[in-house]
Amino acid sequence: MALRINDEAPDFSAETTQGTINFHEWIGDGWAVLFSHPKDFTPVCTTELGYMAGLLPEFEKRNCKIIGLSVDPVENHEAWSKDIEETQGHKVTYPMIGDPQLEVAKLYDMLPAAAGDSSEGRTPADNATVRSVFIIGPDKTIKAMLTYPMSTGRNFDEVLRLLDSCQLTAQHQVATPVNWKQGDDVIIVPAVSDEEAKKRFPEGWKAPKPYLRIVPQPK
């Protein structure tokens, strides 16, 4: 079954580089980013995992955990981590899920049921669709999803920006406009009437159109 935004993030137990986890328990009462990889020792993913290791403090500031997944065994991840640190300059300190039976990849609709039940003998091209990012909220629902081709490195600065927007809009009845970043103006959502908006935003708003009500970012 295809996953969509606002669906519950499928729960699972799996082996990781930091021991066995139950995914929902591991998330706890904060946010989480799950990002997946088609195979260990692949060049683009090596750069991605290293960059995310460097960004980890920024996610931690936002009460957000990071977890990687690759359809190879955990012992391969541990060897790969050494290459990542050597070539990218950042030690991977977040957990990486081993998915050698492809269970999590199928659970998250990244591989079809007919993909088999073993990563052995599969090439990165066989697993090309295992290149997704899921942002998951404290309520364990999927807030955002991104999928990239193997030839294009993911923009994890954009994932951080997306997380900022998801957290802001979950707390306040606003939406973020195109290319928004922290501190920029935001939009009052249509579900909020003008009457209610006056209570929420007593200093008023700019409205170039009645449906486009622009206010400073709430604190």
Indicate the topology.
Blueprint: E1 13-16, E2 19-22, H1 23-27, E3 31-37, H2 43-61, E4 64-70, H3 74-88, E5 96-98, H4 103-107, E6 132-136, E7 142-147, H5 156-171, E8 174-175, E9 186-188, H6 194-200, E10 206-209, E11 212-215
Parallel strand pairs: 3-4, 4-5
Antiparallel strand pairs: 1-2, 3-6, 6-7, 8-9, 9-11, 10-11
Helix pairs in contact: 2-3
What does this structure look like?
- With 219 residues, the chain is α+β, with helices and mostly antiparallel strands.
- It has 2 domains: 13-153, Glutaredoxin, CATH 3.40.30.10; 172-215, 2-Layer Sandwich (Antioxidant, Horf6, Chain A, domain 2).
- It contains 6 helices and 11 strands.
- The chain has helices spanning 23-27, 43-61, 74-88, 103-107, 156-171, 194-200, and strands at residues 13-16, 19-22, 31-37, 64-70, 96-98, 132-136, 142-147, 174-175, 186-188, 206-209, 212-215.
- α2 (43-61) packs across α3 (74-88).
- The protein is elongated and about 60 Å long.
For CATH, the homologous superfamily of the largest domain is named as: Glutaredoxin
Instruction: State Rg.
Output: 19 Å
Number of beta-strand segments: 11
Average per-residue pLDDT, rounded, comes to 96
Query: Which fold name fills CATH's third level, the topology of the largest domain?
Result: Glutaredoxin
Task: Estimate the global geometry from the Cα principal axes.
Answer: elongated
Order of helices and strands: EEHEHEHEHEEHEEHEE
CATH class of the largest domain: Alpha Beta
Distance between the termini: 39 Å
The structure class reads: alpha+beta
Largest beta sheet: strand ordering: 5-4-3-6-7
Strand content: 15-25%
Q: Spans of 5+ residues with little confidence (pLDDT < 50)?
A: none
CATH second-level architecture of the largest domain: 3-Layer(aba) Sandwich
Helix content: 25-40%
Q: How can the largest sheet be summarized?
A: 5 strands, mixed
Domain count: the total is 2
Number of helices: 6
